[in-house]
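in:
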């Protein structure tokens, strides 16, 4: 119910019509090495679909830092992960992530942000922040329903691999960007 409420009241920041499928989150998570302690940043966690999948697979000393701006999702995420010390929820935009982490301190960034609904300056600020906080061989993993932001992503991350999942509503592209 929270998801639908947020879709209708904040469609420009949610950018989805349904929660992500298990097929999409498998493609998003597969480029990550979850066998040892890591720090993952999640941009736009929504209702926590990717977070839930990650928490089942990461080590007890790994961390997930979530950046979310939708008030309904923030409240839900804070309640949902209240007892899990591995999760911290920040109620600010992803472009602010540089204020919370040292340069090159994050292993992976998982992003569900609707870049296609954002202005170009904001997209570049978010991508620049992501590159700044990622470790030398870190990965920025983004899904989009269309390839309209391909040039923006390539401008910041020249090494990009693409995946596609038809089994999502709507079908989605996954960008796996290496720093």
């Amino acid at each position: 119910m929270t998801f639908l409420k947020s879709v209708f009241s904040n469609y420009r920041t949610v950018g989805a019509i349904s929660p992500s499928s298990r097929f999409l989150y498998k493609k998003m998570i597969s480029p990550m090495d979850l066998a040892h302690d890591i720090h993952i940043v999640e941009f736009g966690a929504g209702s926590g679909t990717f977070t839930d999948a990650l928490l089942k697979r990461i080590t007890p000393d790994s961390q997930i830092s979530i950046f979310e701006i939708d008030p309904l999702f923030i409240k839900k995420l804070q309640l949902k992960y209240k007892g899990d010390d591995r999760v911290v929820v920040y109620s600010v935009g992803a472009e602010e992530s540089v204020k919370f982490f040292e340069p090159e301190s994050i292993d992976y960034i998982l992003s569900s942000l609707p870049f296609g609904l954002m202005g170009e300056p904001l997209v570049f600020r978010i991508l620049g922040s992501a590159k700044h906080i990622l470790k030398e061989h870190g990965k920025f993993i983004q899904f989009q329903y269309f390839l309209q932001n391909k040039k923006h992503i390539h401008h910041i991350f020249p090494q990009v691999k693409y995946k596609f999942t038809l089994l999502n509503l709507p079908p989605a592209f996954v960008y796996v960007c290496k720093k």
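note: The CA atoms of residues 19 and 28 lie 14 Å apart.
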